[in-house]
Write a structure and sequence with these properties.
The structure is a homodimer.
Chain A lengths: L1 H6 L3 H5 L45 H7 L5 E4 L17 H17 L13 E5 L22 E8 L2 E7 L3 H18 L13 E4 L5 E5 L30 H12 L3 E3 L12 H14 L5 E5 L4 H4 L11 H17 L5 E4 L16 H12 L5 E5 L14 H6 L10 E6 L23 E6 L15 H8 L16 H7 L10 E5 L15 H12 L5 H12 L4 H22 L30 H5 L5 E2 L16 H8 L9 H4 L2 E2 L10 H25 L6 H33 L14 H6 L10
Parallel strand pairs in A: 1-2, 2-4, 6-7, 6-13, 7-8, 8-9, 9-10, 10-11, 11-12, 12-13
Antiparallel strand pairs in A: 3-4, 3-5, 14-15
């Protein structure tokens, strides 16, 4: 095993910070039987994952001593006198939410909630805006650049008192600032002298993207498409009368990251969601989320007026249709005055759309945009489309359809583009549309739920995946002139030449009704990383992993390092045992669980794994160069050149762009066939290493969550072996090549793997 | 309103113990907004319902003083010395479960868990069987009649020490005894001097039915047919590797009631459940439940071998089929040595069965019975059948099909009969099969989930409904000779003339993945009441309501009385606003939510509400006397005579048996039309009263659960009005009669109620 890792350098060296030498790994201790009676509930708080990263468990004594002097009271400027311990901040406002969170958080961290105080005093945490405390304006704080959502944390003097100031231009900014202060304290112990800096705070932060939105693929019957965390968090049946308390905790968690919007229902939408009973349900959710700065959006089915029988067509240029949507928007805004707008999946995978009437995506989007524009609403129009006709390369279609429309969208439309051109695979090159539509604001669509990365079972920290895309240099330069421009910069810049000033990012949520929210403890980290990257797309995945681990498990730096290391290696492990070297779309049909590279019998060619890997006796991979589909030409020239040559294409994406002979010589000096096998083996080894590393953490992680994770890591290892064995068995059957010495034969014959069926897999929603 | 209640005497006087005069009711206080931020978690334990009736919250000081001297240590006889605080009872055994529960329970109630002790000492709780403490045999305890599941609680002297003895013939008996002691302490404070008696205990209890079984209608994709409490508790996808901790708490809750079996999957079954991967999943559940005395059963699809392609037919008399089932049983018992057996729904509602091959239900049941007999397994064969052909009266069919088969079933077969002859309606007369098959053990099937009684939204305590059926005198006498014989007695007697000694009862579970298990706090009471009645079918619903309320909310006798009063009136309220006077099957199609008495267009006549109420200008009701379907003749002569005459038929079942003119004169002196309207109005008034009574309890119930329930009671009231209004509007449209003075017209025209659709209602699983 050691030899293999050596051979995979330098890439693996980056992703496997082997601070723990393999030789030092202890054997896995036997897991305590879960079924055994007698397991007593831990005294006090049970770590069942419900509290997410907002656990606020008591700090150690030394840390408390550092924090108490700078957080000994809470003052919310402009709320008048404190009254019997309860502050006079208006109920249901962001300010009240901020104060409540500080009390809850500091109360937990310090063992006792700081009192609310009417007057500024030494050691107080003071929340203030220029409106609530006019004196702020004269302090040279430079609040203006923070905008309506940014915040400032500063140790300063107010009215002669030494305070911890949270300042912002709006109460939402104060709420974000309150969460930032709590995060700082909660994680502080892990950074060198982290808490020592609390007395000399001077930080400012503002979101780099305006729209930071979750997309729930939640159906009205409470199933969730690609959901692996129980039912939908939205108990539609009980709404609007019954508002689950989880909605508030959901809002707190999102606000703690800066997420400021949520699309409640699946992009595969139903007309019902826009009828009165459902608008009332959505309004109840909106009321609950509003104090946390989160706007509600809905996925609209393009044919809604037609299907409800209100119009005779859904043609976007038909005046009756436009009038219907205008009236519908008015109706929605009456119930939800700050309704965000619509998300639309049109003319994609069977969904209706403007093309049904020979209209363009822009025609459809602009018609809806005009309906919500008077209310300051927006339309997020998805670029995930592929034609019914047999395409030359599915990866090219979104670009082919949308690039020509650049400049034709209304100012309140964003085009929402998946991170890659296929569909949320474990690894995809950045979507060629990024940088290709300078007159149109593009909104990133990441998938947080792990449809293709092992459901909630596998530990795969996606922070690295998000960062990989966001940091990709599209070489489109500012204004598309060919200079350096990362995807993050492109998102932040928005439509440089267009009339729209909108920017945004969306994540397909992994949130459900399960107690731990995401189906596994570690999947919470993907929600976290998405949210933090939405705030700052140039944040570092490694730093976010440490932040999350410190708040979620322990702020002990040694624990944080080990947990973060595990996270940082995890996604690459999944890529290795599922789709190494740029392979993609090799999963089982429909449910997308497990390997099925042999599938070749589906109706559309581009639904079949064989369409994507094109393996035969001669070689493997999808030729997307000029000799093939020429998808590389969709990228800016610098990037296209790089991807056009296998020698300059990163090996991690090699077979995405190239069909190569089995004896193609890799950078390692090995033949492609040998390298492919080595990657599969390394994935399995990494999965094994992950469970062993976790086992070593048993003494420092609470028993319950440690066991929860250990059981899943065991299952992940078994499934990694399955992926590797089934894939090797299949590719050997087409390559006809022998396994090199030392490479283990698959555990079962190929037919066994082909026979496996999963008719009851979750997430088919 | 007061006048109306007076008019409904005497029935209402029984069901409305108006200890609270209406004039004393306070107005409903405004509910705290759930969406408001700032709601702090209560310090310590949050009452979210997860702990069910096993909350074990600290007793008051006076109570603790009474309990401590009789529970100051725990001694498990035969386990050797205590070792560092942990007892040597073998892990994963019922004895360990009993000790752990006593430690958990007494620890919670007393604030500190009594230590485990190796030697008998004064004040100890001693768990002992004749096997673990041979001295028991000489004490004249008369343990033998307790059987393998009964227990004895006695304050006595052992080895010269004054102890609280829990004695039984088996460790399962000890576990039941431990729960009984904890229940006694937990509820004791509510009975006069309840805890004072702890020092002079002398109680013995043994179950009156052998098989006390939950039926989960849970599908393999984790949906639940008629489930209103989230997804299935069985996370099939994650099993067998991941065993949810809930399974242990599920086992504890069931064991606390004496439930000793659970059918894991829906009676509408799939072949997959009997394949190797699913047997492994069931085995993992069985391993978890085993220490709690709970056996696992599976619902078997009759055509399984045929559908799996292993046989060419599913004909029960085909030797290959019988051999397949025998081999399958062997395979299951290898994985689950104490597997309980099969539950089968055959030739009913489209399910396959022996009649597909011109064989009888007995042919089918006996073939399966022979497969499991070598392993001491059983078959529970459902009598819920109705033919595909148009029947003269669906209510007659189970009797017509099964009575002729009496005496033809193997000794390890029970016939499982629903409480009534239609389908779990809010009120049905007892099923005519009870007492009609003296050579066959009949197993009662109650529905705990509220398919027809308002889902989990409506508060409807079903203890009264269960008791009503169990206490019904079928007049079949012992051995069917015509004397008095209640349904309870018939169940307890089993097959008096047959070869089988089996007895049993089943309840269709209302348990799901929701935090509070049952979808609402009060629905937990139905699980509780079912379990306690399964142990003793002659228990009283009122006493069980008090028991449950004391453990679930507060043992303060005043609170217990008010909560129990609410419960005791609740089911009759539902009957009144849904299906008064013996009406039945008036609900919406498919989802069974809300009123739809007008439905007349379904494929089968007996799927239509109009088939059941037969209302027209002349009158209303189903004539089941000799002039009609003559279903009354299926009852024993004494009962048949009573039901044949409207004057001797209880008014609560009047229209079940009789078609009567609108001006039929009721006992109240009113005309039937007026009486019907009055019942609907009383149902609405009762729903209103329920929410007002609950509002008054606000100061004495924890805030969270009080609000949870208050919101639902509000919704229940709104839906009661809807049921009443829609029903009145419809029946007026067919009767053509005016509403009497003082009766309020429905709020909307009939067409409005007809237009309501619920395509996303839960429970369609």
């Amino acid at each position: 095993m050691r030899r293999m890792f050596k051979a995979l350098a330098p890439m693996l060296a980056v992703i496997l910070p082997l601070s723990l030498p393999l030789s030092a790994l202890l054997p896995l201790p036997a897991l305590a039987g879960q079924g055994a009676p007698g397991a007593q509930a831990a005294p006090g708080v049970v770590e069942d994952g419900y509290d997410l990263w907002l656990r606020y468990r008591p700090l150690g004594k030394a840390a408390r001593v550092q924090v108490r002097p700078v957080a000994s009271a809470i003052v919310a400027a402009g709320t008048g006198t404190a009254d019997g311990g309860s502050i006079a901040a208006p109920a249901g406002t962001p300010l009240q939410a901020a104060v409540a969170e500080l009390q809850r958080g500091l109360g937990g961290l310090l063992g006792k909630a700081p009192p609310l105080a009417a007057a500024v005093q030494d050691g107080a945490v003071v929340l203030a805006t220029p409106a609530s405390m006019p004196a702020l304006s004269g302090m040279g704080l430079q609040l203006e650049p923070l905008g309506q959502e940014g915040y400032l944390l500063r140790s300063t003097r107010l009215q002669g008192r030494k305070v911890t100031l949270i300042a912002a231009n709006s109460d939402i900014g104060l709420l974000y600032g309150a969460f930032a202060l709590l995060r700082k304290i909660g994680t502080g112990a892990e950074a060198p002298a982290g808490l020592a800096g609390l007395g000399a705070l001077d930080e400012r932060s503002a979101p780099k993207l305006q729209l930071r939105v979750l997309n729930h693929w939640d159906n009205l019957d409470r199933t969730v498409e690609r959901g692996y965390a129980g039912e939908s968090i939205w108990n539609w049946w009980a709404l609007p009368e019954v508002r689950d308390r989880r909605y508030v905790d959901y809002a707190r968690a999102n606000a703690s990251l800066g997420i400021n919007g949520t699309v409640l229902n699946n992009v595969n939408s139903k007309p019902d969601i826009l009828t009165a009973p459902w608008i009332a349900k959505a309004a109840a959710v909106a009321d609950t989320l509003r104090p946390y700065g989160i706007k509600v959006y809905l996925s609209a089915r393009f044919s809604t007026p037609l299907e409800l029988g209100d119009t005779k067509t859904a043609d976007p240029l038909d005046p009756a249709v436009a009038a219907w949507w205008k009236a519908k928007a008015d109706e929605i805004y009456k119930a939800i005055p700050d309704f965000g707008g619509f998300l639309v999946k049109a003319n994609s995978e069977g969904q209706p759309g403007p093309q049904d009437y020979k209209r363009s995506h822009a025609d459809g989007a602009n018609m809806l945009a005009k309906a919500v524009a008077p209310h300051k609403g927006i339309v997020m129009w998805r670029a995930f489309v592929y034609a019914h006709e047999k395409p030359d390369d599915r990866a090219k279609q979104a670009y082919d359809e949308f690039k020509p429309l650049d400049g034709t969208f209304d100012a309140n439309v964003l085009v929402q583009v998946k991170n890659g051109a296929i569909d949320f695979q474990p690894r995809e090159p950045a979507h060629p549309l990024f940088g290709a539509m300078p007159k149109t604001p593009l909104m990133m669509e990441f998938q947080i739920t792990k449809e293709y990365l092992g459901y909630a079972t596998h530990l795969a920290y996606l922070g690295t995946m998000y960062q990989e895309t966001l940091a990709t240099d599209m070489h489109t330069g500012t204004g598309g002139k060919g200079g350096s421009a990362t995807v993050a910069q492109i998102l932040e810049a928005g439509a440089e030449q267009g009339k729209s000033r909108l920017t945004g990012i969306a994540g397909v949520a992994n949130i459900g009704s399960e107690r731990n929210w995401s189906g596994s403890h570690f999947d919470q980290a993907n929600w976290y990383a998405f949210g933090r990257l939405a705030w700052n797309p140039q944040a570092q995945a490694g730093a976010l992993a440490r932040e999350w681990a410190a708040q979620t498990f322990s702020s002990d730096p040694a624990v944080v390092t080990q947990v973060a290391d595990l996270m940082m290696m995890s996604r690459e492990a999944v890529v290795n045992y599922m789709t190494p070297l740029g392979l993609h779309h090799l999963m089982g049909t429909g449910h997308h669980h497990g390997p099925a590279p042999w599938v070749a019998n589906l109706e559309r060619p581009d639904w079949n794994p064989v369409y994507y890997h094109r393996a035969d006796q001669g070689g493997i991979g999808f030729d997307r160069t000029a000799s093939g589909s020429n998808a590389v030409a969709q990228y800016a020239p610098d990037l296209a050149r790089q991807y056009a040559d296998p020698r300059t294409t990163p090996e991690s994406m090699l077979l995405w762009f190239h069909h190569l002979p089995w004896d193609y010589k890799m950078a390692s000096g090995r033949k492609l066939w040998d390298e492919l096998l080595a990657r599969y083996d390394s994935g399995v080894a990494q999965a094994d290493q992950m469970r062993q590393r976790w086992a070593r953490l048993k003494p420092v992680i609470d028993a319950r969550r440690h066991e929860d994770v250990a059981v899943l890591l065991d299952k992940q290892y078994q499934e990694a072996v399955w992926w590797r064995d089934a894939s090797v068995a299949y590719f050997q059957s087409v390559s006809g090549l022998p396994l090199p010495a030392g490479v283990k034969a698959p555990g079962r014959p190929l037919d066994y793997y082909k026979s496996l069926k999963f008719p009851y897999a979750p997430g088919r929603g």
